[in-house]
Amino acid sequence: MENPLLLFPQLNISASKDKAYYKVMKSATKEEPPKASKPGTKQKRNRLSLLLQKPEFHEGDHLGKPGNLTKAASVSPEEAVKWGESFDKLLSEKAGLDAFTKFLKTEFSEENIEFWIACEDYKKSRSAHELLPKAKTIFETFIQKDAPKEVNLDFHTKEVTSQSIGQPLRSSFDAAQSTVYRLMEQDSYPRFLRSAPYLSLLQGRGPACAPLRRRSRSFTVSDFQGARPRFGAW
């Protein structure tokens, strides 16, 4: 019986083409470099985190590190005594601000001091161009309903602040900052002066570890309506 490839030469041609095609494909498969995996989509960072990470924002890293309390060696009893003279004096001292921030963290109310610091940074903006993104960040982080670090503001103050966000001024957060300042001054500050870490500093010892407290809500904004704010030279 004759070879079918001789009788049908087109079969031989087709087979040759298939072999050539297979050879080329096999070679290409071996030589083709592996495709690089697509980088995963980066999650958007919380704009507050970016704000807090800026050196000009907190000037000394008051926030972030839970153990960042004033070292006993850097604070004398005489300095600690001055913190008790007024809330303004406490906040004007970097070491005092650090110690007070640490204290608020033990009470789970550190959003108050973080908001106050954010407002201080906001008022230092050098141009109107900087105000809008900072204003939106502060509003979305501390003031709007269900904000991640919502502070305790009365309805009127929140509404006035909300209306100014579209075209913010350096004074846009003054009313809200004043309210939070009074809350800290008349509620948290007296407890800080009675706390174990502060009393230890007065006695020249290292700051003691204060026991954790539940978030204090013993005072509300309405308790301080009409109280006169006492600010330092801002």
Radius of gyration: 32 Å
The residue-averaged pLDDT reads 74
Q: What fold name stands as the CATH topology of the domain at 77-203?
A: Regulator of G-protein Signalling 4, domain 2
Helix content: 55-70%
- According to DSSP, the number of beta strands is 0
Shape designation = elongated
Domain RGS: 86-202
Organism: Melanocharis versteri (Fan-tailed berrypecker)
Pfam families: RGS
Keywords: Signal transduction inhibitor
Structural features, described:
One of its GO terms (biological process) is negative regulation of signal transduction. This is RGS18 protein. Keywords: Signal transduction inhibitor. By secondary structure, this protein is mainly α. It has a domain at 77-203: Regulator of G-protein Signalling 4, domain 2 (Orthogonal Bundle), CATH 1.10.167.10. 55% of the residues lie in helices and 0% in strands. The protein has twelve helices and no strands. Helix 8 packs across helix 11 (174-193).
